[in-house]
Automatic annotation (TrEMBL):
<dbReference type="GO" id="GO:0005886">
    <property type="term" value="C:plasma membrane"/>
</dbReference>
<dbReference type="Pfam" id="PF02518">
    <property type="entry name" value="HATPase_c"/>
</dbReference>
<keyword id="KW-0808">Transferase</keyword>
<dbReference type="InterPro" id="IPR003594">
    <property type="entry name" value="HATPase_dom"/>
</dbReference>
<keyword id="KW-1133">Transmembrane helix</keyword>
<dbReference type="InterPro" id="IPR003661">
    <property type="entry name" value="HisK_dim/P_dom"/>
</dbReference>
<dbReference type="InterPro" id="IPR003660">
    <property type="entry name" value="HAMP_dom"/>
</dbReference>
<feature type="coiled-coil region">
    <location>
        <begin position="263"/>
        <end position="290"/>
    </location>
</feature>
<feature type="domain" description="Histidine kinase">
    <location>
        <begin position="245"/>
        <end position="457"/>
    </location>
</feature>
<keyword id="KW-0597">Phosphoprotein</keyword>
<dbReference type="Pfam" id="PF08521">
    <property type="entry name" value="2CSK_N"/>
</dbReference>
<dbReference type="InterPro" id="IPR004358">
    <property type="entry name" value="Sig_transdc_His_kin-like_C"/>
</dbReference>
<dbReference type="InterPro" id="IPR050428">
    <property type="entry name" value="TCS_sensor_his_kinase"/>
</dbReference>
<dbReference type="GO" id="GO:0000155">
    <property type="term" value="F:phosphorelay sensor kinase activity"/>
</dbReference>
<dbReference type="Pfam" id="PF00512">
    <property type="entry name" value="HisKA"/>
</dbReference>
<dbReference type="InterPro" id="IPR013727">
    <property type="entry name" value="2CSK_N"/>
</dbReference>
<feature type="domain" description="HAMP">
    <location>
        <begin position="186"/>
        <end position="237"/>
    </location>
</feature>
Amino acid sequence: MARRYSLKRRLLIRMGAIFIIALLLLGVGIWRYAERAADYSFDRLLTGASLSILERVFVTNEGIEVDMPYSTMSMLSLAPEDRAFYQVLGPDGFPLTGYPDLPLPEHWKPGNEPVFFNARYSGETVRFLLQSKLLTEQGIHGWVTVQIGQTRIARTALTWEVFLNALGLLLLIMSLGLLFVWFGIGRALRPLGLISQDLRNRAPAQLSPLEVPAPKEIAPLVNSLNTFMRRLQGNLNLMQNFIADAAHQIRTPLSTLQVQLDMAEHEQDNAALKRRLSKARELSKRLIRLTNQLLAHALVIHRGDTQTLARVNLTELGRQVLTEAVRDHAHTAVDFGYDTNVQAAWIQGDTISLKEALRNLLDNAVKYGPADNQITLAVHAQNGQLQISVEDRGPGIPTAQHQQVQQRFERLAEDRAGSGLGLAIVRAVADAHQADMTLSNGESGGLKVTLSFPAAEQE
């Protein structure tokens, strides 16, 4: 037995996995955003400090002087846990003041645009800014550059603060999303629960169609269940009809047979005893034929509902059935004939059911026709269809009764031998193959039964 799993749980796990992947991707984006936001905030402090230093760079007779403003240190003291470093480079690139060993980026040249970069200094990661100013005074022409740096402790703290706040909000949103998904899945699967409850509350024999509101995604399931129950109801009806028919049709012959045997048991006259046994033998034959035809009728209906049709060659099938009939009736004066205008007549069909239908047509022709009856089985291609027919030279059936004799247990006369199932079996086979069944009067006045099938596609 296959292991059962919860569809709701499986959907929730998959949605949770999608949410986790989204959370990881969004987390990376949030972290980068938090880093940029922290850098932007503290870079403004570095910019303000560097500009305040550049404003206090003067050219005097002695050269370039730097008057470090107090406001510079006050700006950087806004992050008291960080350390700050600075230096001022003259036009020749030599330090004028500050820390002379501060690192510079490779291939850097002074210019109007500020340059930010990260570097290791004094055992820590430091954020540096290079801000330059062009001097053209008293014979000095060149760039004066202020390099100012700050450790990243406060920046990292701000980055984590922004990141965790945003991540917390995102986790809250995703948790609410999963909760809504949970309720949404439960509501979406509610029709399945209604179907289960409907089926659980039904009586064993209640096979009526399901009538529950279902979305279009579940409609195919409901339609399949309804189709299955219709087929099950049909099989149940078939079984009930078979039991009812068998009880009704067999009870009377069995009772009559029992009466004949009881009377024969007490019969003293030999001639009368022979008559009783002869009647009992005839009743036994009729009972055997009736039983066989009841079983055959149930068989063809059952196969019509359960079997998958395959390619069948009607010409070959007709020859096989006719050969069997010739063998079975070799002791009679019946003349069997075969006629066809095609070498192969392929249809989609069930061989067993088709053979049963043809046997019944041939048996009926022998049973109800004259002793020297002429019976012809023909296979023809006509008007885009493939037809197989059985024609005899018997008394035929009045046209007004052609529909009546195709019903179960219908006979032309009550005193006429037969079960009334022969043509009903043929009709059931025709219906199972979506074939047309027609009764007509043959050229010799006998009955002609024709089955017309759509031709199978060429392989």
